């Protein structure tokens, strides 16, 4: 059954769903809902993979990626490699509303944020410092899973200068423990659609790495004439296929959301059968679906839904 309004987000981040739902219930727009929902995860450091204090890069620094998209106007704001600012999705919205640009990155994005009144803070925590120093020493992260990722060098370090390596030996692919982005979709009673993402990306990434989350059509996409989609997983692979855009286009052509999600995942599997990733989709009538590939430890991908069918956000898989 479908009903509107609808909030749906990746992973069991239920406080984020509730924050977005409350925003809609108190008269906020779908953009307000997506921003508030993603921001809740940034504050709560959902799974250690959204917001500050997670996924330190090769130098130990945490950097953030986020985007927000207005499906009515097709406006987008995005930030990549954002440093020192905790509220990445807020900065993304400021890019959308206060500039004529779509995406700002790195140090310049941080300076823009500071100019907009966002507070500059250290994004490092004891936990992220510890993950970093263990990796430097060549110790596996406690949640490293040998059965899923047999090559320990990808997760356990130790760091080696790239110049001493064979090509691609430093490739690090994502796992569910190294990151779990929030991707969120909101649709109101009148069919206004918005989508957004927020993440600290991939643990031990090369500085400057930006994932799929802030890339339009990759991390998320919204079009009030068709629906919205958001992705999570190995962004380095997934962004090559613009899965969120593809899913929305399939729904526009008449596919139901589950089929659209499955097709977007299958397209990636054709080239990368072992990639880890998932996508959520919703159309403008409030029907929704999800699909995934190789979510370690889980047979199905888990996501949250809030609509008028229940009093509280529901965990789905
Ligand atoms: C990235 N796709 O930076 C993001 C992270 C993620 O589950 O989704 N993790 O690659």
Automatic annotation (TrEMBL):
Site (Cleavage): 180-181
UniProt key word Signal: yes
This protein's name: N(4)-(Beta-N-acetylglucosaminyl)-L-asparaginase
GO CC, any one term: lysosome
Recorded family membership: Belongs to the Ntn-hydrolase family.
Record keyword Hydrolase present: yes
UniProt-annotated binding residues for substrate: 209-212, 232-235
Root EC class: hydrolase
Matches recorded under InterPro entries: Ntn_hydrolases_N, Peptidase_T2
A GO biological process held by the record: proteolysis
Known catalytic reactions: N(4)-(beta-N-acetyl-D-glucosaminyl)-L-asparagine + H2O = N-acetyl-beta-D-glucosaminylamine + L-aspartate + H(+)
Active site: 181
Function statement: Cleaves the GlcNAc-Asn bond which joins oligosaccharides to the peptide of asparagine-linked glycoproteins.
Domain of life where this protein originates: Eukaryota
Keywords for this protein: Autocatalytic cleavage, Hydrolase, Protease, Signal
Gene Ontology molecular function: N4-(beta-N-acetylglucosaminyl)-L-asparaginase activity; peptidase activity
Enzyme Commission numbers on file: 3.5.1.26
């Amino acid at each position: 059954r479908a009903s509107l309004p609808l909030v749906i987000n990746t992973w069991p981040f239920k406080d984020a769903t509730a924050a977005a739902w409350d925003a809609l219930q108190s008269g906020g727009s779908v953009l307000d809902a997506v921003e508030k929902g993603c921001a809740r995860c940034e504050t709560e450091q959902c799974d250690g993979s959204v917001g500050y204090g997670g996924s330190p890069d090769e130098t130990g620094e945490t950097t953030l990626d986020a985007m927000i998209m207005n499906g009515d106007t097709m406006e987008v704001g995005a930030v990549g490699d954002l440093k020192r600012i905790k509220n990445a999705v807020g900065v993304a919205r400021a890019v959308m509303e206060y500039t004529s640009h779509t995406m700002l990155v790195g140090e310049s994005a941080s300076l823009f944020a500071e100019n907009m009144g966002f507070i500059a803070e250290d994004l490092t925590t004891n936990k992220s410092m510890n993950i970093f120093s263990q990796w430097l020493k060549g110790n596996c992260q406690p949640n490293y899973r040998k059965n899923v990722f047999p090559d320990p060098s990808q997760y356990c370090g130790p760091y080696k200068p790239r110049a001493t390596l064979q090509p691609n030996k430093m490739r690090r692919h994502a796992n569910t423990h190294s990151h779990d982005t929030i991707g969120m979709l909101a649709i109101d009673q009148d069919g206004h659609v918005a989508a957004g993402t927020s993440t600290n990306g991939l643990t031990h990434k090369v500085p400057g790495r930006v994932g799929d989350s802030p890339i339009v059509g990759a991390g998320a996409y919204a079009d009030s004439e068709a629906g919205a989609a958001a992705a999570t997983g190995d962004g380095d692979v997934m962004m090559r296929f613009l899965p969120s855009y593809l899913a929305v286009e399939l729904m526009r052509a008449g596919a139901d959301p589950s089929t659209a999600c499955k097709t977007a995942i299958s397209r990636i599997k054709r080239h990368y059968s072992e990639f880890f990733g998932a996508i959520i989709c919703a159309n403008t009538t409030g029907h929704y679906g999800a699909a995934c590939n190789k979510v370690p430890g889980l047979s199905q991908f888990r996501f949250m839904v809030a609509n008028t069918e229940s009093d509280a956000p529901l965990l789905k898989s």
